[in-house]
Specification:
The protein has 2 domains: about 10-55, no CATH class; about 60-104, no CATH class. A hairpin with a 6-residue loop joins β1 and β2. Strands 1-2 form a two-stranded antiparallel ribbon. The chain has 3 helices and 2 strands, in the order ββααα. It has helices at about 40-55, 65, 70-85, and strands spanning about 10, 15-20. The longest helix is centred in the middle third of the chain and has 17 residues, at about 40-55. Bound molecules: zinc ion. Zinc ion (ZN) binds near residues 11, 13, 14 and 36.
Length: about 100
């Protein structure tokens, strides 16, 4: 039994000819459907999710030089920097609030 192109679509990822119900709708596409079947899309978003969860939150904001340091080491660096600023004549008296809470 032959299937017509109107009822099936070939997934551009896995190459399988599948019924149109196996594809999610996509407004901008010519035929109104995604290029990949639901299964391939699902796999892809799982992989994407996995990749996202491996990456620590706010990684794009973190300083690569400090990323490998432990919180204690970073605090130690901050203290060193404050000492350096004081040595240069900067006065933080009454202006800098230093709050520290580290759970290890
Ligand atoms: Zn597929």
């Amino acid at each position: 039994m032959e299937t017509t192109t109107t009822t099936t679509k070939t997934c551009s990822k896995c190459g399988q000819e599948l019924p149109l119900t196996s594809f999610y709708p996509k407004k901008r596409a010519k035929d109104g459907l995604q290029y990949w079947c639901k299964e391939c899309q699902g796999k892809r978003s799982k992989e994407y999710y996995k990749a996202k969860t491996i990456t620590p939150p706010h990684s794009e904001l973190s300083n690569p030089e400090l990323a490998s340091l432990q919180p204690r080491e970073i605090i130690a660096q901050i203290k060193t920097l404050i000492k350096e600023l004081r040595a240069r004549g900067y006065n933080y008296e009454g202006k800098l609030t230093y709050l520290q809470e580290i759970k290890l």
